[in-house]
Amino acid sequence: MKKRVGCRNADPIVASENFRHFTNRLNYKILGSAAKLHGRRLKTVAVIESNADGRLHYHAMIDRPHYCSFETFKGVVADQWLRTDFGYRQIDIQDAADAGWTNYMLKSRQKASLLDAIDWTNCHLIAE
């Protein structure tokens, strides 16, 4: 994430708002009007952490629908992230998360508390 936009600094609350804006945009682009009309959402797990220089960033697992190719999904994710205020150009999108990715997301390094690092507001674990 960008550290600052205009007069706003990226803090955990701003980061969560920015990630919610991103997922709202992503859900609409991938799921269409069902995202707004019926509240459908992609399954998402989001974890926020800070690197050595204090830059907040997210690690996320977002369930890609079977009808959406990885290349299309990757393009939409990158595009929608960069359209948010704090979207930063350093993006790494991989297909098919495994146990190694889950362990990396949940590592305790760079987090004061694992439970506080999970952005529960932006986690959606039930496909609707």
Secondary-structure map:
Layout: E1 4-5, E2 8-9, H1 12-31, H2 34-37, E3 44-50, E4 56-62, H3 70-82, H4 99-105, H5 114-117
Antiparallel strand pairs: 1-2, 3-4
Continuous helix count: 5
The span between the termini is 28 Å
- Percent range for β-strand residues: 5-15%
Share of helical residues: 25-40%
Order of helices and strands: EEHHEEHHH
Strand order of the largest sheet: 1-2
Number of extended strands: 4
- Please tell me the overall pLDDT: 90
Sequence stretches where pLDDT stays below 50 over 5 or more residues: none
Please identify the structural class as seen in this structure: alpha+beta
Task: Describe this protein with a few key phrases.
5 helices, 128 residues, globular
Written account of the structure:
By secondary structure, the chain is of the alpha+beta class. It is built from five helices and four strands; from the N terminus they run ββααββααα. It has helices at 12-31, 34-37, 70-82, 99-105, 114-117; strands at 4-5, 8-9, 44-50, 56-62. Strands 1-2 form a two-stranded antiparallel sheet. Helix 1 crosses helix 3. The longest helix has 20 residues, at 12-31. The radius of gyration is 14 Å and the shape is globular. It starts with a strand and ends in an 11-residue tail after the last helix.
